[in-house]
Write a sequence for this structure.
């Protein structure tokens, strides 16, 4: 009997009232930027997420991504479904970017407009985030030509039939043949057009000088477009005249490859022109002297092209 009574006392002492659940801490609206991966290589695609945390019942206005960011191409933006957990609601906007040139850059501060349940509006500002873009050349020190197209690797346990592999090879060969035929047809049409204009042979410097003249005509109306036309004309000329894959490389990557034998002492001038074009084309905002700088770069490009024409073609 004494043992049973003692057990009842112990049970009463241990039971008690349930512990009170502490109230949740009120959520303060916040916004932040997450970059993954934080360090990019030229050509890499990264996801930049703008995360906004608010109490439930708040409305977040659609986010406006920046018009342009130095060092990056903006690919697309997507507003993800909102996530609600307890006293907080999380909204994410995912922006995909591709690294286009090496250097240290900055993702700009963004303004996020929110509206509470009563309709009162306020604004959040995200902090600017540094972005570092490095070259892929250190990983392939001996390589100077671009990589060929490559399909994703199949699973290790996959057993593709031989006929499928053969069909894929035949389709690839057929596609390459069509591309080669199309290129030859375009080249023949250009040669015929040049011949009709009184030009003995269609030469790369003829095309380059004509493109530079077009860019100079467009400089007054749109200096940024003129710089882009000049850069494209110079890159195409380097590819056709010296066999450099300039159309698929950044300026820094072009500067890192061996100097073409036929370029001689003119090669540094070509690199300087490319750097001048990049400095203007990728400038966030222009100023009063932007047109003059683009015109100066176009004139330097014309001098380089004229100096690199073979003596027998002058």
């Amino acid at each position: 009997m004494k043992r049973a009574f003692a057990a009842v006392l112990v049970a009463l002492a241990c039971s008690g009232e349930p512990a009170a659940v502490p109230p949740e801490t009120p959520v303060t609206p916040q916004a932040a930027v997450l970059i993954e991966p934080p360090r990019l290589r030229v050509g890499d695609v990264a996801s930049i997420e703008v995360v906004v945390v608010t109490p439930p019942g708040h409305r977040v206005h659609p986010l406006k991504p920046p018009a342009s960011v130095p060092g990056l191409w903006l690919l697309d933006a997507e507003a993800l479904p909102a996530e609600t957990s307890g006293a907080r609601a999380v909204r994410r906007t995912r922006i995909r970017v591709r690294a286009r040139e090496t250097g240290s850059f900055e993702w700009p501060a963004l303004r996020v407009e929110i509206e509470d349940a009563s309709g009162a509006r306020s604004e959040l500002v995200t902090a600017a985030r540094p972005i570092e873009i490095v070259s892929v050349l250190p990983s392939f020190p001996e390589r100077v030509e671009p990589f060929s197209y490559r399909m994703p690797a199949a699973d290790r346990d996959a057993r593709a039939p031989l006929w499928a592999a053969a069909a894929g090879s035949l389709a690839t060969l057929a596609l390459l043949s069509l591309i080669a035929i199309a290129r030859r047809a375009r080249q023949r049409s250009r040669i015929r057009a040049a011949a009709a204009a009184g030009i003995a042979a269609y030469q790369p410097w003829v095309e380059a000088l004509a493109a530079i003249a077009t860019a100079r005509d467009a400089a007054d109306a749109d200096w940024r477009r003129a710089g882009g036309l000049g850069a494209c004309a110079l890159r195409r000329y380097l590819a056709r005249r010296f066999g450099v894959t300039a159309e698929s490389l950044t300026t820094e990557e072009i500067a890192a490859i061996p100097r073409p034998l036929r370029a001689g002492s003119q090669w540094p001038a070509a690199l300087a022109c490319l750097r001048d074009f990049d400095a203007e084309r990728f400038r966030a905002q222009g100023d009063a002297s932007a047109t003059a700088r683009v015109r100066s770069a176009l004139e330097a490009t014309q001098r380089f092209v004229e100096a690199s024409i073979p003596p027998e073609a002058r």
